[in-house]
Amino acid sequence: MNDLLQSIATMPGPSFLLLYLAVVAAALLVCWFAVRRLDTTVTEALGTDQVMVVLTTQPVSNVVFDISASNVNEAIASPSQRTFTNGNWNTPQPITVTGVDDGVDDGDQLSQVVVSVNPALSDNNWDTLTAKTVSVTTLDNDAATLSINDVTV
């Protein structure tokens, strides 16, 4: 890519300057991904929901995303990785978020699912992208109980 830019930059005339600027702009916009739906709600009764992740441009080689939940006592995300290839890059892939029944009356809880590029397994052009965060609300299904034992007077 640098050789191409250098060749274009040394060509005479304004049309070559425009071509050079177009190539530079395209290079800057190449790598990006989208997570559709940045918030979701699930229930502790193993309620599920899906969010989708997709690349916006075709990679040269695989792009692997690590997927993790910030509080696995409230919600989990699966699978733990999603891989995009230069053949499936524009097909959205689901991430399933599932509520966890904790048996505690702790009210609705907020947590996050983080989707980040795994630089060791991914096309180097994608390594520096900022992780995306999905806000998860887990609706509590527990109720406080009070029990009184037999009292003798």
Structure notes:
The chain is elongated, with a radius of gyration of 24 Å. With 153 residues, the protein is of the alpha+beta class. The chain has 2 helices and 9 strands, in the order H-H-E-E-E-E-E-E-E-E-E. The model is unreliable at 24-29 (pLDDT under 50). It has helices spanning 2-9, 14-28; strands at residues 33-36, 39-43, 48-55, 63-69, 75-78, 81-84, 93-99, 109-117, 132-139.
The SSE order reads HHEEEEEEEEE
Tell me about the largest β-sheet.
5 strands, mixed
Specify the structural class.
alpha+beta
Percentage of residues in helical conformation:
10-25%
C-alpha Rg (nearest Å) = 24 Å
Counting DSSP E segments of at least 2 residues, the number of strands comes to 9
Count of runs of 4 or more consecutive helical residues = 2
Q: Could you list the spans in which at least 5 consecutive residues all have pLDDT below 50?
A: 24-29
Q: Give the N-terminus to C-terminus distance in angstroms.
A: 90 Å
Mean pLDDT: 83
Give the neighbour order of strands across the main sheet. Answer: 2-9-8-4-6
Q: How large a portion of the residues is in β-strands, by DSSP E? A: 35-45%
